[in-house]
Write a structure and sequence with these properties.
Length: 347
């Protein structure tokens, strides 16, 4: 049975079933890392709340967050943005577990923890910060370092049986790990990184497609590189507390190749009367088995740059043109062309 969700716009966005969860989610969802975390430089909470509300106004019906984003602050901002909405009109809220920080050393790297006691504390903390009685999708953020996968996946399945979460999934897990989890209980969704630059999760996406697991990917615009507005000068001017200053894709030859690829998206965008950002997200959504793309924004206006991806259908010719540009520029790694289904490029 499909679980109803509210329509947040006069012209609702297309939806897709999230695996076997009963949730139908819009093809694009709002990612709350950039607006709630500290890894992207300074941010304004009022602006962050407006970003969330703008996404809902434009028809987005799900938000993806995590405790580690801002060390709890992202979840608090999501609650703040939604608290005045009737429960029947709120979007689905997805969050995660398994990354634990030290309150006495908040600047220290988080630990990957999967013990049952730790996950129970995390779940209770997320429920409190989000101001909800049940989380729509609860995901293990990364494989744990302290316990085997079977132990933490069993705990998440228990949370579902207890009614504290509606569905459970994994993030940043390999096919071998997906297989091990599936043996214990159905993996209802996977959240891997995926973009026209970072394409190595194609195999995991295909596994999910074959096993009726939903797929919601993060960084479809590769943290801004595929927006069509990012430049080498912008990369050089990023604040020191922005994580991208320490990422290889934002420096040297890799940056040059990535920006060349973004430039090659412009003719495709022009033909469709849309933005490069929308094309970059639509390319991700063209892969068979894809349920939705998690897209971030620092300002409300940035939502408008990519929202059109939800209804944008790239033709086979578009996809082949982009694949040729990937090969020509040498940007990223992984398969450059979505596999076909029923003789055509799949949506």
């Amino acid at each position: 049975m499909e679980i109803p969700s509210a329509a947040f716009a006069q012209d609702p966005l297309p939806t897709r079933p999230l695996g076997t969860t009963g949730m139908a989610i819009t093809a694009v969802g709002l990612g709350a890392w950039a607006i709630g975390g500290t890894e992207w430089g300074a941010h304004d909470d009022e602006v962050s709340v407006r970003v969330i509300r703008r996404a809902l106004e434009r028809g987005v019906n799900w938000i993806d967050t995590a405790p580690i984003y801002g060390l709890g602050h992202s979840e608090v901002l999501v609650r703040r943005a939604l608290q005045e909405m009737p429960a029947s009109e709120r979007p689905y809220v997805f969050t995660k577990c398994g990354l634990v920080w030290d309150e006495s050393r908040r600047e220290a790297p988080p630990r990957r923890v999967g013990s049952a006691d730790s996950l129970r504390r995390e779940l209770d903390d997320s429920l409190r910060r989000l101001g909800v009685e049940r989380i729509d999708l609860y995901q293990m953020h990364w494989p744990a370092d302290d316990v085997p996968l079977e132990e933490y996946w069993h705990t998440l399945l228990e949370f579902k049986r207890a009614g504290k979460v509606h569905a459970v999934g994994l993030s940043n897990h390999s096919i071998e790990q997906l297989e091990r989890a599936e043996h214990l209980g159905h993996v209802e969704s996977l959240q891997p990184p995926f973009s026209a630059i970072r394409r190595h999760s194609a195999a995991e996406i295909a596994w999910c497609h074959a096993h009726q697991a939903g797929v919601i990917v993060y960084s479809p615009m590769q943290a801004g590189l595929l927006t069509g507005t990012f430049t080498a000068e912008r990369a050089r001017s990023l604040p020191k507390d922005d994580w991208r200053t320490r990422n290889a894709q934002f420096t040297g030859d890799a940056l040059t190749r990535n920006l060349q690829l973004a430039e090659a998206f412009k003719p495709v965008a022009a033909r469709h009367g849309t933005t490069v950002a929308a094309v970059a997200v639509a390319w991700v959504l063209a892969w068979p088995g894809m349920t939705g793309a998690i897209v971030g924004a620092h300002k409300p206006a940035q939502v408008d740059d990519w929202i059109g991806a939800a209804a944008l259908h790239l033709t086979e010719a578009d996809l082949r043109e982009i694949a040729a540009a990937i090969e020509r520029t040498g940007a990223g790694s992984g398969p450059a062309l979505p596999p076909h289904e029923s003789g055509g490029a799949a949506r």
